[in-house]
Amino acid sequence: MSPLLCCRFPPPQEDDDLPYEEEIIRNPYSVKCWMRYLEFKQNGPKATLNMIYERALKELPGSYKLWYNYLRERRKQVKGKCISETVYEEVNNCHERALVFMHKMPRIWLDYCQFLVAQCKITRSRRSFDRALRALPVTQHPRIWPLYLRFARKLPLPETAIRVYRRYLKLSPENAEEYIDYLRSIGRLDEAAVRLAAIVNDENFVSKEGKSNYQLWHELCDLISQNPDKVKSLKVGAIIRGGLTRFTDQQGKLWCSLADYYIRSGHFEKARDVYEEAILTVVTVRDFTQVFDSYAQFEESMIAAKMETTSEMGKDEDDDIDLELRLARFEQLIARRPLLLNSVLLRQNPHNVHEWHKRVKLYEGNPRQIINTYTEAVQIVDPLKATGKPHSLWVSFAKFYEENEQLDDARTIFEKATKVSFKQVDDLSGVWCEYGEMELRHENYEQALRILRKATAIPAKKAEYFDVSEPVQNRVFKSLKVWSMLADLEESLGTFQSTKAVYDRIIDLRIATPQIIINYAMFLEEHNYFEESFKAYERGIALFRWPNVYDIWNTYLTKFIDRYGGKKLERARDLFEQALDGCPAKFAKTIYLLYAKLEEEYGLARHAMAVYERATQAVDTAERHHMFNIYIKRAAEIYGVTYTRAIYQKAIEVLPDENSRDMCVRFADMESKLGEIDRARAIYSYCSQICDPRVRRGAAVFSPPADRQRVVSRVVRFLGDSIPYACLSLSVF
Q1: Using omega within 30 degrees of 0 as the cis cutoff, is the peptide bond preceding 3 cis?
Q2: CA 123 from chain center: how many Å?
Q3: In this protein, which residues make up the domain named Pre-mRNA-splicing factor SYF1 central HAT repeats (predicted)?
C-alpha cells in the first residue's frame, strides 16, 4: 500500500475490518459502502466509530445521510453527561461543521437548536434559530417557528419573546391569538388589547380557535374594561360604543362593560351616566334586565362602601347627607323600573297600543304626565301598523278629560279622532259610538243624536265597506255598529217617523242582520203598525237565505198567526208554503209543527194530517222518529187509533231499524188492545226479522207490563223458537 493511501486510510485495527476497508478503497465515494462499514462498527469503540464517520465525511462532505447519522450518534454519546463538559462543545462544533454543507436542511437545524436549548445556552440558541430562519427558504420556516416560539416562551426575558413573536406574526398573522394569550400571561395587557383590537377590525381574520368575531370583541371588551390602569393605547369608550352599533343583539353586555371600565377607573359619575344612557336606549327586555341589575348592584355597592367608610372615619353632617342622597337615588331607581321597562317595550314597537295603556296606568295620579303620554301616543301610533285597537287610545284620552269634567276638551279629542285614517272601519265606528255614549252619560240627548246622524251621513264619495283603498271616513256610513246605536237612540228619543227612517235606511244599505229585522218589526208592532211590521219581515226575508232567514220566518209566522188567527187562512198557508220552499231539513220541523197547529186550530183536520205527512218526509233523519210520534198522537186524538195503522206501517217502512222495532212493538200493543191478536202476531213476526238474534236477555231482567206479557207469551207459543224472546221485550227496543 502506498504511503499516500496509508495516510488517507489508516490500516485496520482488526482483521474483520479488512473487507470493509478494501471496499471503501475501491469505492471511496459510495455512501452505501461507508454505511455498511459504520453499521458493522456500531457496537465497537465510540472513538473508532467517530473516526470512521470523520473519514467518510471527508470524502463525502455533502452527504446528508452521513451527517445526520453522525450528529445523532454524537448527541447520543453525550446524553446524560453534565452540560458543562467539553464534549458538549465538541458536538456543537460538529454541528457547526455540518451546517457549512447542510445549511439548507431544516432537520439539521432543528436538531442543533434543540441540542443547544437543552444545554441552556440562551443567546447561542436564539442566534442559531435566527441563522436557521435566514438560511432556510420561507417555505421551511413553519418547521422552525414552533420550536423557536416554545423556546422563547420559556425565557425569563419577556422582551425577547415579544420580539420573536412580532417577527413570527409578520409571516403568520393568522396566529395572533397565540401571541395575545402569551401577552396576557405575562401581564403585557396594553399590547394584548391593541393586537386583539386589530384582529377584531380585520374582516378577513379567521380564528384558529373557532371563535366568532363577537367572541373576540367580547374578549376585548372584558380585557379593556377590567384593566383600565394597564390599557392606555386604546380609546375604550370609542371601541365599546363602536361595538354597540355592530352587535345590536348584545348591547346589554357591552353597556355593562363600558360602565365597568369607568367604575374600575374610579369615574363613578361617568359610570352612572353610562347606565342611564343604556336603560334609555336598549330595545330588548333581556338587555334591559342585564343593564338594570348591574346598575342596581352598582348603586348598592356605592351605598355599602359609603357606610363602611363612614363607620371607619366617623360620622359628620356631610356624610349623612351624602348617604341619604345615595339611598334616595337607589330607591328612585327601583321605583322607575316598571316605567323604564315599558319604555323598552315601546322602543321595540312604538305602535303597541296595549303598552301605551300600561304606561298611562303607571302615571296614575299624575295628570300632566298622563296627558303628555296620551298626546305622544296618538301622535306616534300609526293605525296601519298598530298592534291592538288604535282607536282605544283616543277614546281613553277623551274619557280622561271627561272624568275630570273637561267635556269641551273631550269633544275636541273625539272630533280629532274622527278624522284619523284608521285601518278598519270598526275603529272609526267605535270612536263615533263612544262619542255618542259620552253625550248620553251627560244627558245631552240631542247632541248624541246629532253626532250619530253625522256619522251615518252619506259622504260625497261613496265607497264599498270593504274597499281598503278608500279612507274609512268614506265607508263608515255602512257601519252596522253606528246604525244600531242610532236606531236605539231614535227609538228612545226620536219620533216614530225618524226611527222608521233609520231602520229603512239600514235595510236599503243591505247591512241589516236578522235581529235588526226582528227589532224593526217589533218596533212597528208596538206602535200598532201590524202590516208594516209584516212588510219589514218580508223585506228581511228578501235579504237573507237559509239558514240565516230561519229566525225571521219563525218570528214572522208566529206573529202573523197571533195577529190574524184563522181570518186570513189562505194568506197564512201561502206564507208557510213560501217558508217551506227551499227550507233545509234541519230547520223544517218547527215550521211544519207551526203549520199543522194552524190547520188544527183554524183549518181542516185533513189538511193538518197532510202537513204532518209531509213533515215526516221533510225533516232531518234524526228527527223523523219524533215527528212520527207526534203524527200518531195527533191522528189518534183527531180520528181515533184505527187511523194510525197506516201511519205505523209507513213509519216501520221508512225509519231505521232501531226506531222501527219500537214502532213495531207499539203497533202490536195497539192491535192487542183492540183485540186483533192475529195482526199483533204478524207484526211481532215481522219485527223478529229486524232484530239481532245475538241480543238475548232474560225475561226476569226485563218485565213488560202484565197485559203485554200475556200477548208476548201467546206469540211465543205460536212462533216457538223462530224468534228470540229478547225481540219481544220492550226493554230491548
Answers
A1: no
A2: 64
A3: 177-381
**And the C-alpha cell for 338?**
316598571
The answer to whether 362 and 342 are in contact (CB under 8 A) is yes
In the DSSP assignment, the letter for residue 10 is P
pLDDT band for 60, please (50, 70, 90 cuts). Answer: confident
- pTM of the entire predicted model: 0.69
Largest CA distance in the chain: 164
Residue 525 DSSP one-character state: H
Q: All 3 cell numbers of residue 315?
A: 360620622
Cell, residue 372: 303628555
Q: Residue 669 has which C-alpha cell? A: 200493543
CA distances from 73 to 30, 42, 76 (A): 20, 10, 5
Query: What's the rounded Cα separation, in Å, for the pair 507 and 511?
Result: 6
> Side-chain half-sphere of 689: how many Cα atoms within 13 Å?
6
3 state SS for 208-250: CCCCCHHHHHHHHHHHHHHCCCCCCCCCHHHHHHHHHHHCHHH
Cα(438)–Cα(415) distance, integer angstroms: 13
Please report where in the chains the cell 213509519 appears, as a residue: 651
Cα 413 from chain centre: 37
CA angle (675 as vertex; 669, 676 as ends), nearest 5: 75
The more confident residue out of 531 and 603 is: 531
Mean pLDDT of the chain: 81
SS3 387: strand
- Supply φ then ψ for residue 365, to 5 degrees: 95, 0
- What's the rounded Cα separation, in Å, for the pair 278 and 270? 12
CA–CA separation, 166 and 198 (whole Å): 14
Whether 214 has a pLDDT exceeding 60, the answer reads yes
Burial (Cβ within 10 Å: 0-12, 13-18, ≥19) of residue 328: exposed
- Inter-helix orientation angle 657-673/706-719, to 10°: 100
Residues near 678 by Cβ (< 8 Å), separated by ≥ 6? none
pLDDT tops 60 at residue 714:
no
Q: Decide: residue 242, CB within 10 A, 0-12 exposed, 13-18 middle, 19+ buried.
A: middle
C-alpha to C-alpha distance for 457 and 501, rounded to whole angstroms: 13
In tens, the pLDDT along 577-623 reads: 888 888 888 888 888 888 888 888 887 878 888 888 888 887 887 77
Gap between the Cα atoms of 272 and 249, Å rounded: 22
Q: How many residues does the chain have?
A: 733
pLDDT of residue 732: 33
Amino acid at 499: T
- Residue 221 has which C-alpha cell? 371588551
> Cα(497)–Cα(501) distance, rounded to whole angstroms?
6
* Cell of residue 369, nine digits: 304626565
Task: Point out which residues pair with 387 in neighbouring strands.
Answer: 352
- DSSP H helices, 363-474, are 367-380, 391-403, 407-417, 425-441, 445-455
